[in-house]
Specification:
The chain is α/β, with parallel strands linked by helices. The chain contains five helices and 13 strands. Helices cover about 20% and strands about 30% of the residues. The strands form three sheets. An eight-stranded parallel beta barrel has the order 2-3-5-6-7-8-11-13. A two-stranded antiparallel sheet has the order 1-12. The protein has a two-stranded antiparallel sheet with strand order 9-10. The two termini are about 25 Å apart.
């Protein structure tokens, strides 16, 4: 399949709903059926599993088969509930990366999907720094981010994140709903000292602020796909 390369990130017209066919980067979650837009994707963030807490934190795989994607780069996503990882979780992650790579995929890196509260960003940065040392250098490390980080994140904590992660995808939605008033937070994304993308919800509303395209750290969009 041909690879779609965009000179500039695709955008939804102001005030419109997010049409997946206008974009080239997507999240594909467990239980969500593939859509035609994926055939033209440049990158796909594919959920591999969830790290759950409790008495014995563990990684639960949520993708039974190893993906085989030739036309787009892949990011392995882990939905994380706890940062209390065990050596077994680390080993499971590395083994999954090897399986994906051996299957012929172009695995770009690992994305951690963890709702780190703004006041705990320093702890999150410390966890990510440790995780970075465990990943083979060939893989990038990415994270999802909350809108509140741009407005209320501690500058030092954000700087620590910038020294560890390669990108953050800031989500303007929560669950299956766009966050009311997201425009005010997005307007402050120039405070982020990290390369970032904006996570949009398929079918959700999106109005890009005029200054966004001029931000040198803005890398484009990622659309969270939904079942019809």
């Amino acid at each position: 399949m041909p690879l779609l390369l965009s000179a500039t990130p695709a955008q939804t017209p102001p005030g419109a709903t997010v049409d997946a066919t206008r974009y080239d980067a997507f999240w594909l979650w467990a239980g969500v059926k593939p859509q035609p837009a994926l055939a033209r994707a440049h990158r796909i963030y594919l959920l591999q599993g969830a790290v759950v807490g409790g008495d014995a934190p563990r990684l639960i795989a949520q993708r039974p088969a190893v993906p085989q994607v030739r036309h787009a780069e892949l990011w392995m996503v882990l939905r994380v509930e706890t940062l209390a990882w065990t050596p077994r979780i680390d080993a499971q992650l590395l083994a999954a990366l090897q399986r994906w790579q051996r299957a012929g995929n172009r695995v770009a890196g690992v994305q951690i999907d963890f709702d780190a509260r703004t006041r705990h960003l320093d702890r999150y940065a410390a966890f990510l720094k440790t995780l970075r040392t465990k990943l083979p250098p060939r893989y990038k490390l990415g994270i999802t981010g909350l809108l509140d980080w741009s407005a209320n994140g501690d500058p030092e904590a954000l700087a620590n994140l910038a020294g560890v992660v390669d990108e953050v995808v800031v989500q303007i939605y929560q669950g299956r709903h766009v966050i009311p008033g997201y425009q005010g937070y997005v307007a402050k994304l120039d405070r982020l000292p990290i390369a970032f993308r904006i996570g949009l919800l398929q079918g959700g509303e999106w109005t890009p602020p005029p200054a966004l395209a001029a931000n040198p750290r803005f890398q484009g969009y990622v659309v969270f796909l939904l079942n019809p």
